[in-house]
Amino acid sequence: MIYESSAIGEIALSLLKTNKAMRVHSIFNNGFNIVNDKNELIFIGTNKNGYFPFGITIDQYTIHHIKETLKINDTVRLTKNGVNHNDFMLMVNKAELYGYKEVTEQADISTIKKVVDNYDFTDYTVGDFNPEKLSSIIDDLADDSADFPLAYLAGRGIGLTPSGDDIITGILYVDKLQPFIAEKHLFELDQYISQTVTTIVSENFIKLALKGIFSTRITAIGEDPSQESVDELLELGSSSGRDTLYGIYMTLNRR
To answer: Would the pLDDT of 189 be above 70?
Structure first.
């Protein structure tokens, strides 16, 4: 069976051109991930969670039928025109190319903060990510004499993107809008996250975030600081959106 994709991110297209094959890493309701030997990742699925520079977008009908034959660790062959599986072919030659913009210091921080502050984060009051602990971590990020603080968060939690990693993504997003993290700690994070301390999916998200590249659900908050854009972020995953927003909230309200 031959299927067509509607959009493809620049990073995904580059990986199609530079890899002969990848393997299926994970499968879920709205899509699946394929990875190469370097743990570089392409997400293939619907736009339910927004668009990603490493994504190939397909509709719900297509993912439904693809999943009927897809198994974890299946090998897929890659060409610049698409993804080939033993039971299907996914074409990208007619897909709209989704470019990405690195996040820069152009957003209205005060408006973002005003919108985000309207949300209730009291459920984080106790537990691994309580405000006191997270505030200490965020404070240490600005201090290049402090020990690497993000080791506590990286990989902490469960799922394809553990809560600690989503919080890191939120922190990094604010840093790109309003830089405060010491360069030493950004370098340490880049090195640390490559040491198999978390999931492949989180590793890819954080490495891109370090470059100022985020999903559209996150960048929309800076482009259009509104309740609507925040609500759409909250729909991301089972808790990923909320954990990311909590990281944004705590960083915006850092001392």
So the answer is: yes
